[in-house]
Structures are given as C-alpha cells and as structure tokens.
Amino acid sequence: MKGKCKPGTFRMLLPPPNVTGSLHLGHALMATIQDVIARQKRQMGYDVLWIPGTDHAGIATQVVVEKKLLKERGISRHQMGREEFLQEVWKWKQEKGGGIVDDLRKLGCTLTWDKEYFTMDERQAYAVNEAFIRLFEEGLIQRKESLVNWSCALESAISDIEVETLDLKGPTELAVPGYDKNITFGRIYDINYKIMNGSSDDYIKVSTTRPETLLGDVAVAVNPLDERYAKYRDQPEVLLWHPFREEPIPLIFDVTVEPEFGTGAVKITPAHDRADFDVAQRHLLRPIQVFSEKGLIREQFAAFSNQPRFEARETILQKLAEMQLLQETRDHAMQLPICSRSKDVIEYMLREQWFLHCQSMADEALAEVLSGRLQIVPPNFEIEWQRWLENCHDWCISRQLWWGHQIPAYKATDENSGKTIWVAAHSEEEAQQKAQDELGSYDIELRRDTDVLDTWFSSGLLPFSASNWPSEEYKQHYPLDLMETGHDILFFWVARMVMLGLKLTGQSPFKKILLNGIVCDAHGRKMSKSLGNVVTPQQVVQGASLDSLKEDLKSAHKSGILSNAEVEKSLKGLQRMFPQGIQECGTDALRFTLCSHNIKSHFINFDVNECYTNKLFLNKIWQATRFTLGSAERLNMPLHEIETMNQVPLGKWDLWILSRLAETLKMCNESFENYNLHTATGALKTFLYNNLCDIYVETCKKNINQQKPEGYIHCATLATVLSWSLQAMSPFTPFLSEELLKHLPQNIEIDLNKFHNAELEKEIADILDICQQIRQLKSRNTISKKYDPQLYLYGHSEGALETLKPHLYEMQALTLTTGIHLHRLEGNVKERDNLRVFSTAGHLCSFGISTNDLYKPPKGADKSASSQNLNEQKLQKLQADLKRYQMRMENEGFRKSASQEVQQKHAEKIQQLEIEIEKIKAMGS
Questions:
Q1: Residue 108 — pLDDT band, cuts 50, 70, 90?
Q2: Can you give the pTM of this predicted structure?
Q3: Which of 289, 374, 623, 670 is at a distance of 20 to 30 A from 756, taking alpha carbons?
Q4: Beta bridge pairs of residue 513
Q5: In the 8-state DSSP scheme, what is residue 9?
C-alpha cells in the first residue's frame, strides 16, 4: 500500500475551533475528513503537515466569561475594568483551552502537534499587527463612518455571520436582553405624514414595522411610477411635517421603492437601515442617529431621551395616536435580525469604524478561481464565490470588545497646531516616530484605539501566519495544498484568506478548497440547544444515559450559558430525541459514520442509530479476524511467513473474494481522488460485511475445521484480504485497524489487477442470488437446521448443471442445509423427492427442500398452500418484470439511445425471465 519513494509534501491547516469550546459534531466531521485525507496521503508516501490551532473567538469567549462572572459573582466587565476582565478571560482560557485539543486527540487526529498555535499568542499577535500596518499604510484600511450590525447588549459591531434571521409569521413575543418583559414583534403600523401647505386632510401614509426609528426619518420615498402619487411628481418640492422633530422633510422619488409594500410610501431612516442608507446617499440626505450604543434614545430627542428603544416604541405610538397620525396596526410576517451571541435584536447603526477596502483584493481572488489556479470542490460553489466577490463591500474589521487583538492604530495630535492623524505601529515608540515624521512636530499626544480586530481578520492570515509570517521561514510550508472547511464560511473565512494571502504574500494560500455540509440531526434539523438535539462526539463515543444528558444541560445553565427557558425547551427535546439515552458507539464507528455521508452535500443528517449499526459492523470485522487467527493456530500455520499469493493454487471462491477486494480498493482510490469518501466507506462495508463475513468466511469454515488442503489456502486468503482491506479501512477506523493489523502480515505481495475477474464475479453473483432465494423460502416456512433440511437443485439445462456443479459445497454452507443434491429438472420432482417446498431460483434452476418428520408447516397454512401462494406471488412479479423489460425494448427512443451492450443485457434478461416463468407455470399444472 505504501509508495516506494516519497512523492513530496502535503499541507493542510485545521480550521481553528474556539479555544473555550468543546468539540461538536461539525468540528468532528471537519477534523475526521481532514484526518482521513492526511492518513491516506501518508499511506501514499507523502510527508504530511497538518497544522493544529485554536481561535481566541472574540465575541463568543467574551460573552461566555461575562455570563460566568455575572452568574458566579454578580459583576459585569464594566464594573471590573478592562485589565482585570482580560485576566479573567486568560484564566478561563488556561482552564478550558486544553479541552478542545484533548477532544481532537481522542478522535484520533494525527495533527502536527509541534506546529500548534493560538490566535492570541505572541507570534500570531505580531503577524496580525504587521498585516494591519501594511494594509493601513497602503491605504486599504481606513477609518470612516458607515452602517454596521450593532448589538446593543454587547455594545459592539458584529459580523454578518453572527446575525441570525428569525422568520416571524405574525405577532411574536421575544425575550430581549435588558428588558424585564417580552417584546412583541410581527406587526406593521400605518402612520400619516402631513403634507405642508396642503389641505388639512392631505397626508401620505407610510407603513413601518419599526416606529421607534421614526425619530430619525429624513424623508418619505415613493416609486416614480406609482400612480397613487402621480400628482406630486411635477411639483418642484413636496415637504412633509415631522411630528416630533417639528421640521419639514422631503417627499422623494426613488425606483428602488416597492409599490407593493404597504401603501407604497416608505420612511427613510438612513442611520438605521441599509437600504435607506443607500437611498439617502443618492439623494444627498443627512442621516440622523436615534439610538446610543446601549440602545437608548439619544439626548437630542427630549421627549424620549434615555428611553430604551422598545419602550420608546410604545411611547411614540401612543403620541402618534394622540395626534391622530397612527392609522392602523396590522399583523405582519417579517424577518428579524438577531445577534447569535447575545440574542439581542440587531440594530443597524451609523458608527465610525475601521474598514478594509476589499474590491481590488476580491477581483484577484475571483481571478484565481476563474483561471483554474484555485479549485473549489464541489464546483457549484464557484457561482457563490463569484456572486460574493463581484460586489464585495468594505469589511468592518473593528469590534468594541476587550478580548481580542487590540488595533495597532494610534490617534496622534500635534499639540501646537491641533492637527490630528492616525498612524499604525507595533509599539507606542514606533507610533511616536511615525507621527513626528508625518506631522513635523515633536509635541505629539498619542492615544491608542481601544477597539479590537474582528476575529475573522486574524484567522484570515492563518495559512501563512501559522508558519511564522512575516519571517521568510513561512515559505517552507506555504501555500497549503488543501483547505477543507464548512461551506457556510466560504465568504467569511475562505475568501478572506485568499484575498489577504494574495495581497500579503503574492500567492494564493492554497491550491484547492473542499467544502463540507452542515451537520444536522437524523430528521434534517439544525442542531440547537433549544431543540435539545445537540449531540457531542464524546456522548456518541462513550454513550450517555438520559440522566447524564440532562445533567450536561443543567451544567450549561449553571455556567450561565443557557437561560431557564432554553433549558426547559432542551429537556423536552432530549426526552423526544433520546428517550433511552445514547448507546456507546466508539470513536471508529463515529468516524466511519461521519464519512459514510456525502460530505459535499449541503446538509448531513447524523443518526446515532446508524452509528451504533456501524459499531456492530466493526465488531463483525473483529470477529472475522479472530476466526482467521484461530484458524491459523488450529492449522499450525504461521501467517507472518506468508509472502505472496501470486502463485497459490486458489479455488473459485478464493479467486472471487480477491477479485472483490481488487474492485473495492480500486473504488477506494478513485473516491479519494474525488473526495467522495462515502463511496469508499460504502465499498468497504459491502466488501467486509457482505462479501467477506457473510459469504466467504461461511464457505471456508468446513474446510478449515476439517484441516483439508483447501483450508490452508482459505486461511492464507483470509489473512491477505483482511490485511489489505484493514489498511484501506485504517484512515477511517484507525484504532480498530491498528489493533488488528498487529496480528496480521502487512506486506503480502499480490498483484490485485490480475485478480480482478468480472466474469467470475457475475457467475458467483448468480449463485448468491440462488442462495438468497433458498434462504428466504426456508425462513418464510421456518425450516431450521434441526429439521435436517436437504436441498435439491434442479438445473434447467445441461449448461446450468455445469455452472452449478463447482459451487455445491459453498451453496450448502450459505443456505444452511445439511445436504445438497443436483439433478436435471424432469417431470414432477416434487412428489418424487418428497419436498416440503418447491420453487424457482432464477433462470438457472429450481429447487426444493425436504425435512425430517419433526417439521410442521407454519400455522394457518398447509405445505401446498404455503408453497403455492409463494409461487403465485413470484409469478406475478416475474411477469411484471418481463412486461417492463419488453416495453423498454420496444421503445424506439431506447433502441436509438441505449448502447448495443445495454440492449444485449436487456435481451438476455428477457430470455432469463421467460425461462423462469415457464418453469414456475409448470409447477402449478
């Protein structure tokens, strides 16, 4: 299996899990896929570098530590102060940070541990600062005011990926951080704006789901093609009276307004809405901010100042009603943006932030894929790549947090002239020098920005920062060969790695991108605490009682991670999903199950029951190996002395299992090339479970037990097949494979290409089909071995007899019969041979079974009725199959499009069905 010379290096980087978390199934899928690829590459002789690391996860970690402090000590970070709070976070990191690494090791991940990094370690921090400084000095990073996603609970801008969209069908009460009672969403309000200089009843009605933002309205917009407002189109200026600011605002015409929404007239609040911000820029309207960072109404709105935004909503509606401007309140389906970390309702806020200009870098990242230099697997994501990058917005990279990389930017003020600039530097001394050079003054006041960088910025540098960039040393391990991760972060992380890699190193950070799907539960639902369907890898590996699952939830509640309401929902979900708890499956079964799905599917439904079934499959391999080792011991046959199978006088079934092995390993190799790991696991499971354990081992037992010459050949074949297939299994099931391969020879020489025999496989497949039909009839009639079942085979022709004759020994073993007899089908054999049941078994033969006198037919049917019913059912099915094949052959389109080989196979099948139908009809006459 191993290459004779090293084909080179193969480099990957594990997407860094959050340092404070524990491994969840999404991580386990990703890590397993990468470990399987790494192990397979090592088997091929590659020198594999697989870089491990953990992410400081700015918002996630800060939120967890804040909840913990509030729960345990009743103190907020603001009360504690920045320095002391950061000490608490580092303490939490030291306590919890090793958990994720332990989980990865337990999963069997063969990472290059001496290359491990943490995104806040000294080396990473220097690389992050250097990247910021270079991009700043090139003019790509600028400080400006723009609209961002804002969490009032966190008092920070947040990334798009941390915004969840809640679909509301109508009025819905939600808990919002900072409010004692639930807030109702899912209503729309019609509000009148009075037209100035118009008649007393001249109003324009606007519809809004957010009346609290009315204070920041700077215009009302309608579509110029909307006939309802045609009379205002030709007027030089139409002004409306703002009821609270008591000043005029314009009526404007804009083609982006949807006439179908509400009344067709919309309020424009550019400081708190993305679309409105764009409209305001086109019409040169000045935004007016309504809310503070904490979500309170700002001071300038005297009647409402310092009211929380959703309390102010009620006050505003009340005052509008008093002014007779509130027309109607209706139920309304809507999408509500929620912060995934704080569960706060997102507010779009106009804030001064640091932005990275992305379009020029995005164009280069797009060119990498369009030119074919960078491949995305599966390729359908290339469309997504293009869609994102062709219209790539500036990236807000600053966060108003305390945990993270503090932005290396200093506001420098010339104390003489008052002139202010921003400089970026690694230290205050360096910033002082830069500011002096730029301002031409020695009297400089410096103040470092207190914000931190978006976590995605530091993780976007990892393909080169993890290998010690900006030192030239990074080039030894750059670029990576493969970046494997979930498709949900294609833009947030993967595209940004490519953009930053190209910009800062001049080279794409990897050659290929492999995207896996999102892990869901067995019913296709995303895993969430509120559904109680979250399963951790360790729970699957070790098993977990329902009580222990409940205890885990209660621990999360004690730590402040889950609220009372979330715990209640989760407990109900757990009861439904796992009434008996989770059965112990083991690490190998978990890995094998994860890879049994098409990893490139959009969603991957993980079923714990399927995992347990795979544990039983692996037990079967263990038993087959024990049987082989025990057989070798009984035969006094040293397996480790077997060097080659190429010249051994093998029987047909030995040749068959080696042919199946050859085909299976070929499928495995092809599946690795295309990252279709499920094809490899499927082929290995079929081979080891069905072909080897259920069939070949059963055909070997008698010869081995009787120590016949064939038994020695079977034992050598078993050892060979197990050795080669376990080596193929080892990337998926390393623990089982490593343990069993210790006892098996691993270097048996065999030219598998020469053993692949499609003709023999077809012959054996026909025999196995006959055996299956015999076993089904035995089972249906409850004929077990204690009734001494004798199998009578009746060949339909001399050719059929010749085909069946070499396989009688194996057929007896596979049908669990005590004797086997082969005859030509002639006359009424049923009465002659005193058969209990009689039927056809395909086109080659019919068969019957005789028993001893102990056998009694199943209750409710005598023997003839039981057999007759079966044959009538079989006849109906055969006739339906024949009709289907005949119709296909008569179809002109099929005759034109199907190949000669396919048409020939159809003709053969028709002929075989006609033979079997003729024989089964004769039984009833």
A1: very high
A2: 0.87
A3: 623
A4: 376, 483
A5: E
